[in-house]
Design goal:
Layout lengths: L8 H4 L14 H10 L8 H22 L17 H7 L3 H8 L2 E4 L4 E4 L1 H10 L4 H4 L3 E2 L2 E2 L7
Antiparallel strand pairs: 1-2, 3-4
Length: about 150
């Protein structure tokens, strides 16, 4: 289906910044947009002309993107793999949870679910982290941080 692209970003990058059919952004419109955005007004005429040129280019780019025919294209719901294989891989089933469910037990009159104590000790050993082992300089149980005085 998409073996050959129908357009490219490079095709939208013309040397003038926008095509002749695009309406020109006026100084009044630029100042209005800057006030709405709580941005400072340009200090020089050159800065103002650069802002107008940039805004016209961005409007040209948006209009070109909006002109693409999207009939029959499903809207994007999220940025993720939505193929059937990915849906099966991400599906949560009883079989996929069985290993974690085996580590739990029902305790007491109110039937609260608790992690089994015999398995909790093993899991804490697996995740034990010693920050002192990573320190380059230490004194006793403290990490020494070298600083320079200005």
């Amino acid at each position: 289906m998409l073996t050959k692209p129908s357009w490219s970003v490079k095709s939208l990058l013309d040397s003038e910044g926008s095509s002749k059919s695009d309406p020109v952004v006026t100084q009044k419109q630029l100042h209005h947009l800057l006030r709405l955005s709580a941005l400072p007004l340009p200090t020089t005429a050159e800065e103002e002309s650069n802002m107008i040129k940039t805004l016209e280019f961005q409007l040209h780019f948006v209009r070109a993107i909006q002109s693409v025919d999207t009939t029959g294209v499903q809207p994007l719901q999220s940025i993720r793999d939505e193929t059937e294989e990915a849906a099966k891989e991400n599906e949560i089933t009883l079989e996929s949870l069985q290993g974690d469910l085996d580590k739990e037990e029902v305790v007491g009159r109110s039937k609260r679910i608790r992690r089994r104590k015999d398995l909790a000790a093993v899991s804490q050993e697996e995740f034990r982290f010693d920050p002192l082992a990573q320190a380059t300089k230490k004194i006793g149980r403290y990490i020494v941080v070298e600083t320079s005085k200005d």
